[in-house]
Fold:
Amino acid sequence: MVGKSGSRATALQITTLQGSAELMIAPPDGIDAGTTVTGCGNVSGGGNEMTENTAGHMGVLAGKVALVTGSAKRLGRAVALRLATEGADMLIHHGNSRAEAQETVAEIEKMGRRAVAFAADLRKVSEIRSLFEEVGKVFGRLDILVNSAANFLPASIISTTEEIWDASLDTNLKAGFFCAQAAAPWLRRTRGAIVNFADAGGLMGWPGYIPHSISKAGVVMLTKVLAKALAPEVRVNAIAPGTITMPGDPPEWEADFVKLAPLGRTGTPSDIADAVLYLIQAKFMTGHTLVLDGGRILGTNGAEFRGG
Structure:
């Protein structure tokens, strides 16, 4: 996709059923492939009291509160909707995807969950802290943090610039650490969980995406050190998606991914959401990175994987 940039907003409007308040914030862009992080406007949300989920029973996350970064669209949105389906009240973080965030909030509220949307520039530690202060004000607790916000910027040994390097490392790695730092006091109280998003590039190394691959490799190590630092109260794990396609992706992506995966298919958003839910519930797992790539890292294609 084509990279984009823009000026940053200076105010954030938080709207709930109880009223509204304004914060000074300069949010980033969203998580689309090939984009840089840019500014955004205001945020709104609200919610209802939690009721039984659509399956007619209380979900496994009933009574818990989850924050998913970058959850207005794509994989982050799929994860947020799945956690809400399982009973969690949701904080929908976004950058400049205000309309998509509001749509996600509305869909969660239809399930009988509480949901609020927030904008924050995750490249700025001060705004990460403001984000988690608002979490406390609105919900008074936090049980789950999913660090899914990311960018995916193509950059080779020749084309990598300082701007691309900083955008990749700040959004994909730095932000995850400082979100975990801000969340830690809340998660220790609830004996909660963190799920970070690495990806196959952080394990394989993609020469066309050098800063991205390095940032995601950093997420794998970040997961290990956070798991040690926050144990035993907080469990920290990661997922490493690969060969995942989304509605609206170019059809040639799926064809290419099928060739790369020994399982002969691409992954889906529900595959990712299932894995995140598993890690949230895995009480005896911490510091682990779960690879979801159809076997891609085992070889270049299914024939090689099978040995002939």
